[in-house]
Amino acid sequence: MDARLDFFTDPTAGKALKLFMTVGKALKDSSVPAATQELVALRVSQINGCAVCIDMHTKEAAVAGESLVRLNLVAAWREATVFTEAERAALLLAEEGTRVADAAGGVCDEVWARAAEHYDQEQLTALVVLVSFMNMVNRLNVITRQPAGSYEPGTFH
């Protein structure tokens, strides 16, 4: 499959990608645990069907030491026993934040309160920005049919 656009050769995309990298760096530098960030990025990407992001975040998480069991169970996290309560709250926030059209009111108060039990204001901000950022990147990749499978960990660090 060939991508509809080549983000690495287009001048407008090049400018935007530099800004995206700045956002990504700010998120990585937040106090949200790196494992939680990768799990959230992976779950949002699964919901949106963004193969290139699923490829990237699965590989990055594995290189960072995430277990294959946990990575394989992200899509079924509700039934899995391998996630902490904090991770479960972040994954629920990510799902409702991604499925805003389905949720009719966005993230409900119960889900927000559950996340707030585990994360402080700075971390909640980082999680909200991460979910929003991943939804944007997923859409860019899905719309332009970016191919997946060849991502090398560390490419965007």
TrEMBL record:
InterPro entries: AhpD-like (IPR029032), AhpD_core (IPR004675), CMD-like (IPR003779). Transmembrane segments: none annotated. Residues 16-96 form the Carboxymuconolactone decarboxylase-like domain. PANTHER family: 4-CARBOXYMUCONOLACTONE DECARBOXYLASE FAMILY PROTEIN (AFU_ORTHOLOGUE AFUA_6G11590), BLL7811 PROTEIN. This is Carboxymuconolactone decarboxylase family protein.
